[in-house]
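Model the whole thing, not chain by chain.
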Amino acid sequence: MKDEQREGRSSIDDIIELYKKDVDRTLLRENLKLTVEQRFEQLMNMQVFVEEAHRAGRKLREAA
Amino acid sequence: MITNFKILFEILIGGEVEFIVIGGAAATAHGSARVTYDLDIVYRRTNENIKLLVDALAPHEPYLRGAPPGLPFKWSVETIRNGLNFTLVTTHGAIDLLGEVAGGGSYEDLYPAIVRKQFFGDELQCLNLEKLIATKRAAGRPKDFEVIAELESLREEQA
């Protein structure tokens, strides 16, 4: 990056640019096709899924 | 605990509470794929709105999230008036009530940066993507870097 382009940027900007490389843009494009209601329904379904996974993990640890 | 965003929104909108959705729930409204577990709102700190907020949430057993049971916490207008930000759990999940947010200020400060989103026949006032990114940046927490990266990617996708 040229010096003039760096002007006004902080190291935080560079860190965020690095993180951006790992963002799944395909997923974001799919989300953008959904309505707001569908986005929240999807979020709540994910919460249930994560909760179930945690519960299953706890059970396995208790059984071990 | 699962947070039922739909019911919490219905409670607040039905109670005519003036609030702005911020944080992870606002990010979801904008298309974020990240999972968030609580609803963050900035509420207007007028006497009338505090009363509406207290009345709306009262039947849903608001209590300090993570606190041991049995504390003498009283959900009342006085409690809200004498405090500012509250991290609560209700029978419908977790909700953070913020009188002010770092990098954004109060309800009145944030109001020019809202965007209205249709939600099951109602309108949600959400913080716009630009301001959402600004508040996350202002917080300056390393755990938010991933979130900011996703929000900025969303902004680029919509450009």
